[in-house]
Design goal:
This protein is mainly beta. The protein contains three helices and 25 strands. The protein folds into three domains: 111 residues, Seminal Fluid Protein  PDC-109 (Domain B) (Ribbon); 105 residues, Carbohydrate-binding module superfamily 5/12 (Seminal Fluid Protein  PDC-109 (Domain B)); 136 residues, Immunoglobulin-like (Sandwich), CATH 2.60.40.
């Protein structure tokens, strides 16, 4: 994401003011806990916990069993230090955490503190602690603010991931799912199932890199799903809701819409800000051998300087036969592979002012010949947008726009 010098200077000034305020204010300094906090029997390694023999720690995507009691703050990680082997032994890989018989997950109870990133069993489900809890507070794993549901213990399989979201372990990623991880965007190519820790940048059998996080709204073929009430949305899911993009901060059960700020965070609002949409129009039906005319239309409440789009069609049923009414001072239409058409239109030379599309603009009329290749008396065919990119006026960054597909009935 680009930063201007002015913005950097503003941030530095703000940080200096905050620092000065912190010095002047009565700031409570950090003090170590009265008693050394104990690690849970199973959890992610932390230097601010005391680990005891038999405890299981996840560290650098590996599983380790503690052999000797560690020291609070003693920097005795399971690997990477001279004394690591004195305190730890490797027992497996993180991907197998739910499959190793020697790992016994503790049942949650209110008699002890549970540190962050500890695993427990509760009512037949695996949970991961998100925030430290204290004995006697009765914060059981049903409290979503403190606990994260991983999945049922009888199968050790997590719920399905959302179509687009930030990568984490506690969902099943299926082929076609899009995961954002460590600044990059990946497409899943093999189901992760009960595997745990299949990090996109390390496991090429499961993931393929398709772009960068800062540009994920513009990656071809990546469609942010509309939120709907028919499913749960796991942590990190990204959805389109009421013209804006939201990310779930917790597991949002069906019915918890992105308007609920306790569960969802606003990520960006390009559709609401720019309010562009693109759609296709044609006669509802066409006969074999005839010419089908399809208008590609752009509308919005802010001026635009360019539109690029790719339209997919079924080349078994339709043959591209050219175009008409191409709008723009600079514009082009060309085949994009066997079954896509690329359209580019620049409506004005004035890139600061652009052109209005408050009255819908017909960008182009595409022409198709209907093939006589279907056996039935009639068949439906879909034309859809593989990608849409709209450039607003005044140098505002480009944005994706929702595309409304078209269904046409072809008849003998």
């Amino acid at each position: 994401m680009k930063r201007t010098g002015k913005l950097i200077l503003t941030v530095l000034i703000l940080l200096s003011v905050l620092s000065a305020s912190a010095v002047a204010a009565d700031v409570e300094l950090y003090s170590p806990p009265a008693a050394d906090p104990q690690a849970a029997p199973v959890g992610f390694w932390s230097n601010t916990l005391v680990w005891n023999p038999g405890d299981i720690a996840i560290y650098s995507y590996k599983l380790y069993r503690c052999k000797e009691t560690t020291t609070y703050g003693g920097n005795q990680p399971p690997a990477g230090q001279v004394e690591s082997e004195q305190y730890w032994e490797k027992i497996g890989d993180m991907v197998d955490i739910f499959g190793l018989e020697e790992i016994v997950f503790p049942e949650w109870n209110d008699d002890r503190d549970w540190p962050g990133y500890a695993f427990v069993l509760y009512q037949g489900q695996y949970y991961l602690c998100q925030k430290d809890t204290t004995a006697g507070e009765k914060i059981d794993p049903s409290n979503k603010e403190y606990w994260f549901l991983c999945g049922p213990a009888d199968t050790a399989i997590c719920p399905p991931a959302a179509p687009v979201g930030y990568w984490h372990d506690f969902v099943i990623w299926n082929p076609g799912d899009i995961a954002i991880h460590d600044g990059k965007v990946y497409r899943c190519i093999a189901a992760t199932l009960e595997k745990f820790g299949l990090v996109p940048h390390k496991y090429e059998d499961y993931w393929v890199h398709i772009g960068e996080e800062e540009d994920y709204f513009n990656i071809e073929g990546l469609t942010i799903p509309q939120w709907d009430d028919s499913r749960d949305w796991p942590w990190g899911a990204i959805v389109l809701f009421d013209g804006a993009y939201y990310m779930s901060m917790y597991n949002a059960e069906s019915g918890l819409a992105p308007s609920n700020k306790d569960y969802w965070m606003l990520v960006a609002a390009p559709v609401a800000k720019y309010n562009f949409n693109v759609y296709m129009k044609s006669e509802p039906a066409a006969s074999a051998g005839s010419t089908l005319y399809v208008d590609v239309v752009l509308s919005g409440d802010i001026n635009y300087t360019q539109i690029n789009t790719s339209i997919a069609y079924d080349s078994q049923l339709l043959e591209f036969a050219g175009f008409a009414n191409l709008n723009g001072l600079a514009a082009e239409v060309k085949k994009d592979g066997a079954d896509k058409i690329s359209v580019r239109s620049v409506p004005s030379l004035n890139m600061m002012l652009g052109a209005s599309c408050s009255t819908p603009v017909r960008v182009v009329t595409l022409k198709f010949t209907v093939k006589d290749t279907f056996a039935a008396d009639s068949v439906n065919t879909d034309l859809s947008f593989a990608a849409i990119l709209v450039y607003p006026a005044a140098g505002v960054s480009s944005t994706t726009a929702p595309g409304i597909p078209l269904t046409v009935t072809l008849q003998k």
